[in-house]
Amino acid sequence: MASRFLRFTEAFRSRPYICEALHVSDGTVKTYISHIYRKFDVHGRQELLDAVQSELAHFEPTEFVNIEN
Hints:
Shape: globular
Radius of gyration: 14 Å
Number of strands: 0
């Protein structure tokens, strides 16, 4: 479930939007977002985006696609 929160968070979705889309309470969204921030050692959404972009920069595009199928 944390990966779903991460996708919404990095898309800059609002907490109310995330609550409605995932059918969870605002408290749950706050908790998951704080856990994601802690895992990435960041304190806000822009820092999170920067951290994710930095991590993705280390991968080749083919690492995201299964080219054998």
